[in-house]
Amino acid sequence: MSVLSKPYMHDEAASFAHVESIIWADGPVCPHCGVVDRAYKLEGVRTKPSKKNPEGKVRHGLWKCRECRSQFTVRKGTIFEDSHIEMHKWLQAIGVCQSSCPPISCGVSDFRGADFGFWVKPDGSGRLPVAGFA
Ligand SMILES: [Zn+2]
């Protein structure tokens, strides 16, 4: 089975669940206060309505910390944080690069407490996580 045919490559909710399972092996980690596994998932939250999305878009992977009451997603603190590109499209790009692009460099890094494979982006501006996508 090709990596591109996996559900997390096409479904936004599944892509968040997949990345969460890699980064948060011990439960969600609040990026604001650092507490582990003390957050609950917020379901059915939508963005503000817009002309393109009159009912707002579903906010996938949204969590709320029981300690500091802050909201966050697994994207916080990663290269995905400031991107408007959907997570499953990021995973598709990473999956394609894994099979076709020569990496500039790679290695294993301690990423929020978990071993996490990465490639350094060609322009050196960040790292692309790759562990667990095969
Ligand atoms: Zn917190």
From TrEMBL:
Domain of life of the source: Bacteria
Domain Transposase zinc-ribbon: 11-71
InterPro entries named in the record: Transposase_Zn_ribbon (IPR024442)
Organism encoding this protein: Roseisalinus antarcticus
The name this protein goes by in its record: Transposase zinc-ribbon domain protein
